């Protein structure tokens, strides 16, 4: 490593990958908090997307036996339809106030859930409501790069097991981030610095996900729910600060 910045970059990638392995989301937000301190956004954004995709692929492969494609399909269809709306709104809605508002919502939601404890699962709405949640997530992804927050919350409110939750929102996040990365590739917006940083961080991402998954297998559904809420709370704080 050539600099202290590179060391922090690797450390940030490891912590983000551990969170992703443990809970199945939050890589982008955790990594961005470090990457943007040492790299310009033009290099940090593709690095976050590529490293997050790698982390999701590692996790998803280990959980592939639990996939329910009928349950996942409405989220994916809704997400694909929602992305163009988010991109269109990007020209009309200021990004920073939006992120602040989303952060306040995540803080309020996670805090209330942590205080209230377990809630009765929401069974209403079926596949249509699942698709709408996917649509909202896709719009938020196109608008602010935050596609995973709403589907993650919704999967918890449905009362699904920890494996069932991850089998929905992890492939969803993977698909939305892949779409964003392909958009950057089509615009030739990935420079040599981002590519070099990706190879630098790859071992830390692989080890972080592996370690996070080992901890994930030792926790029950209730502990998993509290970890997800804690990460949502931390994500909200990160957006507000």
Q: In short, what is this structure?
A:
By secondary structure, the protein is an all-alpha fold. It has 10 helices and no strands.
Please give a structural write-up.
Helix content is 81%, strand content 0%. It is mainly α. The longest helix is centred in the last third of the chain and has 25 residues, at 162-186. The mean pLDDT is 85.
Mean pLDDT: 85
Give the overall silhouette: globular
Largest sheet: none
What is the element string, with H for helices and E for strands?
HHHHHHHHHH
Radius of gyration: 17 Å
Low-confidence stretches: none
Structural class: mainly alpha
Strand content: under 5%
Q: Count the DSSP helices.
A: 10
Question: Any key phrases for this structure?
Answer:
globular; 10 helices; 0% strand; mainly alpha; 241 residues
Note the topology.
Elements: H1 4-23, H2 27-38, H3 41-62, H4 69-89, H5 95-116, H6 126-144, H7 149-157, H8 162-186, H9 192-216, H10 221-240
Helix pairs in contact: 1-2, 1-3, 1-9, 2-3, 3-8, 3-9, 4-6, 4-8, 5-10, 6-7, 6-8, 7-8
């Amino acid at each position: 490593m050539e600099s202290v910045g590179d060391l922090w970059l690797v450390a940030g990638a490891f912590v983000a990958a551990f969170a992703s392995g443990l809970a199945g989301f939050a890589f982008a937000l955790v990594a961005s908090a470090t990457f943007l301190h040492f790299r310009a956004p033009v290099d940090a954004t593709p690095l976050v997307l590529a490293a997050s995709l790698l982390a999701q692929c590692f996790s998803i492969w280990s959980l592939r036996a639990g996939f329910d494609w009928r349950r996942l399909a409405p989220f994916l269809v809704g997400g694909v339809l929602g992305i163009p709306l988010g991109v269109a709104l990007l020209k009309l809605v200021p990004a920073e106030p939006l992120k602040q508002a989303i952060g306040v919502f995540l803080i309020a939601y996670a805090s209330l859930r942590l205080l209230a404890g377990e809630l009765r699962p929401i069974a209403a709405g079926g596949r249509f409501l699942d698709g709408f949640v996917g649509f909202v997530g896709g719009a938020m992804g196109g608008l602010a790069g935050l596609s995973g927050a709403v589907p993650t919350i919704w999967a918890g409110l449905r009362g699904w097991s920890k494996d069932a939750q991850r089998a929905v929102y992890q492939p969803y996040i993977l698909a939305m981030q892949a779409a964003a990365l392909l958009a950057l590739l089509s615009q030739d917006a990935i420079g040599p610095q981002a590519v070099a940083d990706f190879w630098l961080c790859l071992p830390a991402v692989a080890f972080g996900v592996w370690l996070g998954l080992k901890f994930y297998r030792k926790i029950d559904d209730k502990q998993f729910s509290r970890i997800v809420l804690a990460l949502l709370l931390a994500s909200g704080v990160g957006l507000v600060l």
